Amino acid sequence: MFYTLLFAPLIGFFINGLRFKSSDAKVAGLIASSALLISFVSALGLFFQLQGLPADARVLNFQLFQWIQVSNFSADMSFTIDSLSIVMTLIITGVGFLIHVFSVGYMDHDERPAKYFSYLNLFVFNMLLLVLGSNLLVMFVGWEGVGLCSYLLIGFWFTDPAKAAAGMKAFITNRIGDAGFLLGLFTLFALYGTLSFSEIAALVPKEPTTEWLSPINLACLFLFIGAMGKSAQIPLYVWLPDAMAGPTPVSALIHAATMVTAGVYMIIRLNPLFLAAPNAMMVVAFVGALTALMAATIGLVQNDIKKVLAYSTVSQLGYMFLAVGVGAFSAALAHLMTHAFFKALMFLGSGSVIHAMHEEQDMQKMGGLRKSMPITHMTFICGWLAIIGAPFFSGFFSKDEILWMSFHSPRGHIVLWVMGAVAALFTAFYMTRLMALTFWGQSRVSKDVHPHESPLLMTFPLIVLAVLSVFAGWLCVPHGLGSVLPGHPHNLLEEWISPLLATFEMPHGSLSLEFTLMGITLLGVTLSSLLAIYFYVIRPAIPAQNAQKMNGLYNLLLNKYWVDEAYFKTLINPLVRFSQILWEKVDVKFIDKITYSLSDMVKNAGGGLKMVQSGNLQVYALYIVAGLFFSLFYLTMR
Amino acid sequence: MLSNLMSIGLGHYLLVSAMLFGMGLWGVLLRKNILVVLMSIELMLNAVNLAFVTFGYFLNDANGAVIVLFVIAIAAAEAAVGLALIITIFKNYKEVNIRFLEHLKG
Amino acid sequence: MSEVIVFYFFAAVTLLSGLRVISTSNPIMSALYLVGSMVGISGLFFLLNAPFIAAVQLMVYAGAVMVLFLFVVMIFDTKDDGKKGNSPGPLVGGLKALSIGGLAGIFLYVILFKISNFGYLSPDPSAPQFEVKNMAKLLFTDYMFSFEVLGLLLLVIPIGTVALSRIRGGTHAK
């Protein structure tokens, strides 16, 4: 069953890859979706198999082959199904399957849908390698593979140079992160001589070290750099908004639900290592909180619907890193799961909207779509309520757990809570703004566009994801809430993965403090949602006036703090200039010159020798006579 | 000096032979007409024949003359073939000026 | 005494004719002077007590080969129409003269200084070394193989010559 799980997407990749020129979306989509369905069913099977095992031995190991064996070091191509990886696998294959089904409808007008589906399947295969690997090397193979597929899919319509550039930006930024990841691997290898998760967990010291330059700390920081690149944290987040150039289902799958969560998964997997390096965890928490806040501010003023969702993703990923940074690993996993559902839902919903609006993505040209796209509207509302943290929707449970942990954990801090809470307020504002501009209020749709509801192939996944967004939260009810709710629901997710978490003492917090903080956040969220409705539905003229009044601030946010421009000016342009100089001065003038001078020498020598053969018979006779003369001269004068 | 001129020895004949050879060489290297070149080659062959017979006479050896017999026969054969080739060249290029026949240049 | 005069006479004929061979512009005259040179050499052969070789020289060389030459020379219309052709230049011409001069110099050096006594050997003029019988003996014993090959060569040469210069279609060709 494991093999069908892992290899069904790979086979789908090959089948669709061989027929990549086909333009039949239905056949390609059928192949790809069936592959994912097989994977999902296998994952379910493995899940039930795991459930049957006792709680402290919920591990299934599979080894494909012995990969590297060099003196003391060995890394096998082996995989581990345990409680953590099965959660990730179910998310990947389940949400992936829904997105594949959606794509069949979305890509029906495209030229090369088979190529698209083959890339998608390859991506799922690599993502499975990443989460199922039992050592860091297999994870790294999958890590690189998803980076590659991300590049291929973002730049899917590569004939547009801007889209191709977006793909390159994603890949290069990823690579910078990967350099950090590799440094982390080297440090870990130098430290422990192994890269296997179980062995590292056994070798990590129980006492945390507070030395900044200790190898464990450095390893964690390097690995976090890799996570920064893959999961779009500051400063390597710049690729994610540009990645919206790819097809929307790609954004849903890769940049919301799966690939970008790889960094979070890595840290959860290596939680013993990180717990022993509190300084690194602090860095992680702060970077996460700062990212959550900054991305939320940028999302406030964006007009492209996908960009808003992209910045929202960056922001929510920041929450996940904040969670792992303060030691709340199960909260991070919970938020990962709920975010996968509601963000994929919203991306697919926006895909449905864009498809109906004939590829129009500017929200200022939308409005009032609730009438023409009811199903999309309803499902989007579910996602919206989930992300802003409306009570008892899925996002509420996971986000509030994170906020509480950032305040309450021994490695947390009130500043972190403040940043997280403010980001939550902003999240509520911009998501409500998105809903208002897109679905509510008056229609600003141009006359020649007639939006209509999307076909069943596209609305079916939306409905499923909406149900999950609403109800999935009940899997991860935090302790405090669970104790006061009727029926005392447990935090099932936390109980499921707790055997894999290293011991981390979390003192008992006071319930009243927890509910106070929760209440403050809820109040703030409600107020900011109402403010957004007021600005964008009731008095639509106000935002424009505000933008004019706070022109500087508005421009700063609209231009994303000019981070991309700064990168270009300080890093990229000098590097390009340097490469150009190297090319002109060193390569062309110096190295090429050496090789050409060698060949020119040979050519000229040949040319020189050519002169001997003049074609003139008498000159040839002269050569004979001259030779005769010299030999006779030598013989007689000896 | 005069005694040298009065009685004929090996050297005299060899001088004649050498001078003939030099003249033949001159013709081969410096004349434009290809037929004259061929004739100069014959001249050189004659000079060599003279040298052979001279040495045969003065060394009491008959081998010299036998070799001359062979040389004459072969020279005749070579002249025949050479002339046939020249006729073919003339038919193709309409030229007997050796300066125009540099087709194998380079 | 008479020998000396005859030698000088024939030597002069040979050398002067040879000179005229390479200096005349008319190739027919060139061929005729070559005949003269050959006659002179034949005379020298007589002086060297080799009458058979002298006769062969006259008959084969001067008689057959030069007639062949004259035939071919007369086929060509050798008027000097002033076309210069690719003259290799004075440098090469100078080199040619130089090399000939050098070669001649070596010959002179050898003849004048290396042959002791200028070669006043005492040959036996009545010795029968150049008699036909002696030569035939050598020809059919020591030089047997070369003799046979020479015969083969004399067979191949006319065949080759005809093959080189024939016209396709023979005498009935258009």
Question: How would you describe the overall organization of this protein?
Answer:
The complex is a heterotrimer of chains A (638), B (106) and C (174). In chain A, strands 1-2 form a two-stranded antiparallel ribbon. Chain A has 638 residues and is mostly helical. The model of chain A has no long low-confidence stretch (mean pLDDT 86). The relative contact order of chain B is 0.12. In chain B, α2 runs antiparallel to α3 and α3 packs antiparallel against α4. By secondary structure, chain C is an all-alpha fold. Chain C contains six helices and no strands. Chain C is extended, with a radius of gyration of 22 Å. Chains in contact: A-B, A-C, B-C. At the A-B interface, α27 of A face α2 of B.
Topology overview:
The complex is a heterotrimer of chains A (638), B (106) and C (174).
Chain A: H1 2-18, H2 25-52, E1 59-70, E2 73-82, H3 83-106, H4 113-132, H5 136-154, H6 161-192, H7 197-203, H8 215-230, H9 239-242, H10 248-257, H11 262-269, H12 271-275, H13 278-299, H14 305-325, H15 329-356, H16 369-372, H17 374-388, H18 394-408, H19 414-438, H20 456-471, H21 479-484, H22 492-497, H23 511-538, H24 542-549, H25 551-558, H26 563-610, H27 617-637
Antiparallel strand pairs in A: 1-2
Helix pairs in contact in A: 1-2, 1-4, 2-3, 2-4, 3-4, 3-10, 3-15, 3-20, 4-5, 5-6, 6-8, 8-11, 8-13, 10-15, 13-14, 13-19, 14-15, 14-18, 14-19, 15-17, 15-18, 15-20, 17-19, 17-20, 18-19, 19-23, 24-25
Chain B: H1 2-6, H2 10-30, H3 34-58, H4 63-93
Chain C: H1 2-23, H2 27-47, H3 51-75, H4 90-114, H5 132-141, H6 144-165
Write a compact overview of the structure shown.
The complex is a heterotrimer of chains A (638), B (106) and C (174). Chain A has 638 residues and is mainly α.
Q: What's the SSE pattern of chain A?
A: HHEEHHHHHHHHHHHHHHHHHHHHHHHHH
Helix-strand makeup class of chain A: mainly alpha
Succession of helices and strands of chain C: HHHHHH
- Quaternary state, please? heterotrimer
Report the principal-axis shape of chain C. extended
Task: Note the main sheet of chain C.
Answer: none
- Radius of gyration of chain C, in Å, reads 22 Å
* Number of helical regions of chain A: 27
